[in-house]
Specification:
heterodimer; A: alpha+beta; 7 helices; B: alpha/beta; 5-stranded mixed β-sheet; 22 helices; binds flavin mononucleotide; binds iron/sulfur cluster; binds FE2/S2 (inorganic) cluster
């Protein structure tokens, strides 16, 4: 998330062409959803689900398919916190920052997560590229706060100790994959 | 004969290990050669006891909680499939003090049934409201909802019947039903629990709305932070289509209603109804000027009913049991029941559906059991991030829209967030401003610029307290009166309530002198 922390590219920059490897999923997303009313968000979701982000180069083909300007599409992508312009790390950590979680130590949890992942103030990606930390504002798990999502899985009552244990499971899954 | 065991598939239960518990039960049953069927139900709402597992015995359902993966072998050993004694045994959960005195209308089936089974739904009273609606003139359906006194549960508490009447009376070839399932307020999760625990109730409520106003297409706009609800809703809708409860010929009536779920993309402002419609149309979620009202010019410019999940979920029961049954609950102009959500620093966090009128103190202590930390409760924020912070002296306020407004508060979506005495209220005020700055749609200046300036002013309390207070109050007045929508217009509530009720936390100059 972090609309404010994201580098907002100027739409007047030359729009990069879409790399071949990314073109297929973008075309597929357009083909699947273009005829639905209000198709833009479903298309962007499909692109991000497939690629982990919405590449800058996807803007032009989507705009062409929906008969919109590139600026319109870019404006939508940058408005919503959910869409990312760059790929995230191998693991995505989304820590809730909202009030119920605050009341149960979310600020300390986030500080712990930053220290543990070695993130400088304001940084979102760990130096080794393995982890991305994003703030979220409520996951609907407020009765079991503090809450976080790790690779899309919801966890409740996350103490610093539990955070470390969850991170360790990421390492185990990586070893299995290797 | 197989024995049914219920393990919640609700996201909150899963967040503390329910999936692992379900898997362990299946494993252990197989190892023992026992025929066990695991149903993933919704949550009963005693979230502090999750995972709460129930066994269907001939004497009724017996609950065990909180069950960890490591408890399973011991539970089988103790004969839990026959309701055997065990340290975790709670017995009939509906007789638990937390549950017994609730009045569940919207949540009657949540935690009871298999959420995506249309027949289980029917066996527990489902579809009765829809069948009744099919037998009535549309105007009569609207009249019933009006007579129930139901007001929107999404925050603004606007009378639902009046909204439906406007759409009913509008002339158009196409009309829409839109469900606001954005649930962006922190401390709220009743929409999520309903969509995961009884999604067909929402389907039924929206279908009745469609019949009442003459709309054939519905959309559920769901926030992207709710992947569990997304899967459950889609599964339930597919089942409803397959069984003929949705589509071109609802229950053989010859009438049509189609329903689809759309995902939001992480913008709080898209909970505001007009930005939600913009977002559904594929645009930036910026607030529209009103008029025209969405009831006359809503989605794609057509007359549109837009209601919250809990509003729609009250409708099937209102049709099935009649308007008076619902209207009899409540107090003053706040009729019916409100699913409250107890969250934050509270011992017994969870969902409590009760008629309007209980006091905040009753809910905090009788249901909530006081703070989780064991320290005194100092501040309570009701109604989401735009709600006021209430001090102990206001805990006797009854939960009723008008009573809350009278003390400068807001009941909103019924979210109650508890803070103990370690809370720093200046930090909470700062956060409210910062949240507004992050989530502002950018359409109007008081909100877009004012919130950023608000954070700066609060930061300067450390050096020039008194001067900054005057500035902050002035800025809040500008936001209050100059904002186009309630994001900018209500952010002053948490800020000013913190300043008014907890002034000692803002006295930063003296605090730093003393230090
Ligand atoms: C900033 C803002 C955020 C809102 N967020 C939500 C929300 O998340 N869910 C919701 O149902 N209503 C939300 N609302 C209220 C809606 O605008 C609208 O009043 C409601 O969806 C109408 O449904 P109801 O009459 O059933 O309450 C929000 C309003 C504002 C101003
Ligand atoms: S108050 Fe804020 S969110 Fe509402 S319309 Fe104005 S800028 Fe947008
Ligand atoms: S406030 Fe953190 S999950 Fe709701």
């Amino acid at each position: 998330m972090g609309k404010r922390s994201r580098h907002i590219e100027s739409v007047t920059e030359v729009v990069p062409a879409l790399e071949d490897a990314l073109a297929g999923p973008v075309e597929a997303a357009i083909a699947e959803h273009r005829d639905r009313p209000g198709a833009l968000l479903p298309i962007l979701h499909a692109v991000q689900d497939a690629l982990g982000h919405v590449p800058e180069g996807a803007v032009a083909p989507i705009a062409a398919a929906l008969n919109m300007t590139r600026a319109d599409v870019h404006g939508v992508v940058s408005f919503y916190h959910h869409y990312r312009s760059a790929p995230p790390g191998a693991h995505l950590v989304q820590v809730c920052r909202a009030e119920a979680c605050q009341s149960m130590g979310a600020r300390a949890l986030e500080a712990h997560a930053r220290a543990r992942l070695g993130l400088a103030a304001g940084a979102h990606h760990s130096a080794d590229g393995r982890f991305t930390l994003e703030p979220v504002y409520c996951l609907g798990n407020c009765a079991l706060s503090p809450a976080m999502l790790l690779d899309g899985q919801l966890h409740g009552r996350v103490t610093p100790g539990r955070f470390d244990a969850l991170l360790a499971t990421c390492e185990t899954t990586e070893e299995h994959a290797a | 004969m197989s024995i049914t065991v219920y393990v919640p598939g609700d996201a909150a239960a899963v967040s503390v290990g329910a999936d692992a518990v379900a898997a362990a039960i299946t494993r252990e049953a197989q190892a023992r050669g026992l025929d066990v069927r695991v149903v993933r139900n919704g949550s009963r709402g005693l979230l502090w006891l999750e995972p709460l597992v129930e066994v269907a015995t001939p004497q009724g359902r017996v609950a065990y909680a909180p069950v960890g993966e490591g408890d399973i072998a011991g539970l089988f050993q103790a004969g839990w499939l026959e309701g055997g004694a065990h340290a975790l045994r709670l017995g009939d959960i509906t007789q638990h003090p937390y549950f017994r005195d609730q009045r569940r209308v919207s949540f009657a089936r949540v935690g009871v049934i298999d959420p995506v089974d249309v027949d289980d739904y029917a066996a527990h009273g489902g579809w009765a409201g829809l069948k009744r609606a099919l037998a009535l003139e549309p105007a009569k359906v609207v009249e019933t909802v009006t007579a129930s006194g139901l007001r929107g549960r999404g925050g603004a508490a606007f009378p639902t019947g009046i909204k439906w009447q406007t759409v009913h009376d509008a002339h158009a070839l196409q009309k829409y039903i839109v469900c606001n399932a954005d649930e962006g307020d922190s401390g709220t999760f009743s929409d999520r629990m309903l969509m995961e625990g009884d999604p067909l109730c929402l389907v039924e409520g929206m279908t009745i709305a469609g019949l009442a106003v003459g709309a054939t297409q519905g959309y559920i706009y769901l926030r992207s932070e709710y992947p569990h609800a997304w899967r459950t809703l889609n599964a339930a809708i597919a089942q409803a289509y397959a069984a003929g409860w949705l589509g071109a010929d609802i229950a053989g009536s010859g009438r049509r209603f189609d329903l689809e779920v759309r995902l939001g993309a992480g913008a709080y402002i898209c909970g505001e109804e007009t930005s939600l419609l913009e977002s559904l149309e594929g645009k930036r979620g910026q607030v529209r000027f009103k008029p025209p009202l969405p009831a006359l010019k809503g989605l794609f410019g057509k007359p549109t009913v837009i209601n919250n999940v809990i509003t729609f979920s009250a409708v099937p029961a209102i049709l099935a049991d009649g308007a008076p049954a619902y209207h009899d609950y409540g107090t003053g102009r706040s009729r019916g029941t409100l699913p409250l959500q107890l969250a934050g620093n509270i011992a017994h966090g969870g969902l409590v559906e009760v008629p309007f009128g209980l006091t905040l103190r009753q809910v905090l202590y009788d249901y909530g059991g006081g703070s989780a930390s064991g320290r005194p409760i100092r501040a309570v924020q009701v109604g989401g991030p735009l709600g006021a912070y209430l001090p102990e002296s206001l805990f006797d306020t009854p939960l009723d829209y008008e009573a809350f407004a009278k003390v400068g508060g807001m009941l909103g979506h019924g979210g109650i967030v508890v803070f103990d005495d370690t809370v720093d209220m200046l930090e909470q005020a700062r956060y409210a401003m910062e949240f507004c700055a992050i989530e502002s749609c950018g359409k109007c200046t008081p909100c877009r610029i004012g919130s950023t300036r608000g954070v700066e002013v609060i930061d300067r309390f450390a050096t020039h307290g008194a001067v900054q207070e005057a500035l902050l109050r002035d800025l809040c007045q500008t936001m209050l009166h100059g904002s186009l929508c309630a994001l900018g217009g209500l952010t002053p509530y948490p800020v000013l309530s913190a300043l008014d009720h907890f002034p000692e936390d803002f006295d930063r100059v003296r605090q730093s002198d003393a230090a």
